[in-house]
Every structure is written in structure tokens, then in C-alpha cells.
């Protein structure tokens, strides 16, 4: 990342937690390269089929928030989780998410790592996240952290580009000083797989320039993060080539 | 449908317009069987890359509304269309949709066929419908038909089950007397294809009983329509078997 000229990186937990990596050494290496850690991705899913599972999920996240602090991450990205296996009770899952984030807020405060709640596209409501709009994420922030700076939101264009309330919600997020991260990629018109067929910026239908304008107007001055899950295309290409294209597209279409 | 004991049917335009069918004869046949025509599916997409294309789309819909009247349909279902090919301008497409529905409202009034705007799941925002929530559809109704009964909404659980504002929006629709149709199927937790992998009621995660309760509390007294796009499963089975399972699930899980 540093060699390609990027200023930051957002490590994923599975890259850190696989047992082979020493997190302190990784943190030193990232610092030595002069890279900002824009965020640490991502939370364990909160909802559980039992109270015990839910409590275990909260504890997993507490440990991850500690690691986020070690890495010097600007936020801990919360992908909150979907319905527990076998459940159809969306309000209950959403209530568990609010309870869980409430329980984690003290840890986040203690370690100085704000939690960035990332609304996921409604196509993932069953299995990945029951928080599906920016307005819903902001409501959780206000419920648990009114006027505070422990909770915020991560805005990803892939998840939110379609939202009729997007502009209004971005402005609300700006007023409340809740915009902690901004992720880009693109939504391909012919999406073959909602999870792993994201597009490179400029190849899809998201109006990246309009969204970036709204985000900056809302006061966001952080980095723009590229996140392209693309099993059949970008993940198969030479990483240096992909980084060069990302760099170019960030300048020309984002 | 009649033989299987169902009380209504919603024909699709491609079944009527393929040139082999005489629509008056079809209408007589449906009436003779005692079937209610719950709706006529569905509008041509409204947004066009050019003004000419847009105008042509509106005219296609005018003709279809006339056919809906011939069939005795209780409503004409509006799937409004996505972004025109090559466009990233979601606000412009949404404005065209409002313009187009406004242009069709007089035709709908003249033929006595209300237009049921169907919000589609956000996964279809690019290619099928830029109206993606019930609140957004209701807003269009109020904008174009304040206090009237020419415009309304079609609520499909597949498209709306995830919406954090669903209960509130259903109540709003009831107060405004806008609920014209109610479609059921189910959202499978492991959806392999967002278009053609819908589940049979009870096989997925949508809380059909809760949504039905909200719909009836909002005053909806119409039929419950089953709509299951399922290329790999239900469409391949014996139709009589599928109808029998639908009938049973409508009684037990909807």
C-alpha cells in the first residue's frame, strides 16, 4: 500500500487474528510505513440465538476493539450481524444490536476507538446486518451516545447509493459529527453476486462524484477507502495493477 | 387457479400481449370462472435515456392501463423502472418516474383503474425500479394525488421485509387508504439469485404473520397474492402441487 502511494490502510480481523501475526509488530510495521489506519474491519456479528451466544459475541468485539487501539485505528467498523439462524424476529435482532453496541461503548471510550456503525445494503438483512440505512445507524448513535463522539457511522457507497434519503442522511451525519469513514467501489448494473461482484469505481452506476460532494459538504475530511469484493475479477488480477487502477480512479471518478 | 380453489388471479402483460391471446375472450374466461383480477402486472419501465423513449414508455403504459380495465383488474401494478442504460443520475430517473406517473394518472382515472406503485427491493435500484421503499412510494402518491384514490401502493414482502420503517409506512398507507395489493412469498436466508430465487412462504426469514397483521390493521381487506419467482425450484415443479402447497401455506404461515 505504501509503495503504491496510498496514505492509509484498513486491516481485517481475519488477517490479524489468524495466529501467525504479532499484532504489536504489525502495528509498528504500519507506523514505520507512515500509513494511517483508517479503520479496523470488522465487528463479530452481535445477534445470537441465545443470551450466551450474544454475550460471547459482545466479548469477541471487546477484544477486537482492544486490537483496534493497538493498531492505532481511527475507528472500529461495526457490521452488526443479521438474524440469528432460525429466527424471523427482525425487531429482536435489532434490539440486540442496540444492546450490544451499548455494552461496547464503554470499551470504545476506554480505548479511545470510536465505533463506526456501517449500514449494509438491504440484500444482506438476513445474514449480515440488520442495520440497513444511514438514518437507522444515525438513530442508534443518538439513542446510545447523544451529543457524544464514541459512536459514528461508516458510509459505503455500495450499501447506500440507492437510498432516497441518502443526501439528507449524510447532512444529518455531518451535523452530528458522526461520519467516521467513507468507503467506495461501484454497483455494477448487472451484479451477478450481491456479495462478491462489486465494481471498480467508475464501472457501475453509483454517482460517486455526487456522493463525495455530499460527504465533503457534511464536513468529512478523512481518507477515501477503496473496498472491492470481487471474486471473479479484481481479486484475480495482479495486486500492483489493481492498486494503480484504484489510484487513477480515485483521481478521475471519485 | 379456479380449480385449485383460489379466488383471484393477476395476469402478466407478456401473457396477454404475446399476440396469440384475445384479451376480451380472456376477460370473459376469467369472469366465467369467478376469479377476481387482483391486478394487472406490470407497467413498462418509465425512465428513458431520451425524451422520446420516455414518451414511448408512457404510451405503452397507457395502452396497458386500457387492457387492465378490459380485464377488470382492481389495479395496474407499477414497477417503475431503473436507471436508463448508461445513466448514473438517480434523482433524474426518480423525477421521470414522478412525471410519468403524473401523466398516467388521468388515464387511470378515466378507465377507473388505480395505479399501484410497487416499491422494489434496493437490490433492483439499478435495473428495475428506482422506487425502493414504501415511504417513497407513498410520497409519490401524496405528491400527485393528494387525498385521491387514483394512486396507491402494492406491498410485496419480498421487497419490503427488511425496511426499518415498514410498520410505520404500512400504517401511513392505511391512513391514506393507499394499500391496493399485498404480495407474499419469502426471502431465503441463502438467496442464490436476487431475481429468481424467491422462497415459498414459510421457507425463509420474512415475518409473514407480523406483516399480515400490520396490513390488516391498516385496513387492507383485499386478497393475498402469491408471487414466487423461482427458476430452479418452484417453477420446475408440477403446477398443481405448487398451488396445493401455496394454499396450505397461506392458511398456516401467512
UniProtKB/TrEMBL annotation, chains A, B:
A Pfam family of the record is AP_endonuc_2
Protein's UniProt keywords contain Isomerase: yes
User: What keywords does the record list, in alphabetical order?
Assistant: Isomerase
Q: What's a Gene Ontology MF term here?
A: isomerase activity
Q: Where is the Xylose isomerase-like TIM barrel domain?
A: 2-239
The protein's name: Sugar phosphate isomerase/epimerase
Which species is this UniProt entry from?
Paraburkholderia unamae
- Taxonomically, what lineage is the organism? Bacteria, Pseudomonadati, Pseudomonadota, Betaproteobacteria, Burkholderiales
Amino acid at each position: 500500500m505504501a509503495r503504491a502511494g496510498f496514505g492509509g490502510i484498513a486491516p481485517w480481523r481475519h488477517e490479524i487474528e489468524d495466529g501467525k501475526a504479532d499484532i504489536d509488530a504489525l502495528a509498528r510495521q504500519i507506523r514505520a510505513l507512515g500509513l494511517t489506519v483508517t479503520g479496523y474491519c470488522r465487528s463479530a456479528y452481535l445477534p445470537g440465538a441465545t443470551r450466551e451466544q450474544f454475550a460471547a459475541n459482545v466479548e469477541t468485539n471487546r477484544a477486537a476493539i482492544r486490537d483496534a487501539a493497538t493498531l492505532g485505528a481511527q475507528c472500529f467498523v461495526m457490521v452488526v450481524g443479521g438474524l440469528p439462524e432460525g429466527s424471523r424476529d427482525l425487531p429482536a435482532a435489532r434490539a440486540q444490536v442496540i444492546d450490544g453496541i451499548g455494552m461496547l461503548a464503554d470499551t470504545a471510550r476506554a480505548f479511545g476507538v470510536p465505533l463506526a456503525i456501517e449500514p449494509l445494503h438491504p440484500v444482506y438483512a438476513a445474514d449480515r446486518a440488520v442495520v440497513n440505512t444511514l438514518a437507522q445507524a444515525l438513530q442508534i448513535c443518538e439513542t446510545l451516545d447523544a451529543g457524544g463522539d464514541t459512536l459514528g457511522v461508516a458510509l459505503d457507497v455500495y450499501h447506500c447509493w440507492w437510498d432516497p434519503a441518502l443526501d439528507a442522511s449524510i447532512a444529518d451525519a455531518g451535523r452530528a459529527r458522526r461520519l467516521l469513514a467513507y468507503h467506495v467501489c461501484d454497483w455494477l448494473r448487472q451484479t451477478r453476486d450481491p456479495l462478491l461482484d462489486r465494481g471498480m469505481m467508475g464501472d457501475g452506476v453509483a454517482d460517486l462524484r455526487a456522493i463525495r460532494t455530499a460527504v465533503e459538504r457534511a464536513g468529512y475530511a478523512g481518507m477515501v477507502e477503496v473496498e472491492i469484493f470481487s471474486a471473479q475479477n479484481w481479486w484475480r488480477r495482479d495486486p500492483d495493477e489493481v492498486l494503480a487502477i484504484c489510484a487513477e480512479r480515485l483521481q478521475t471518478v471519485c
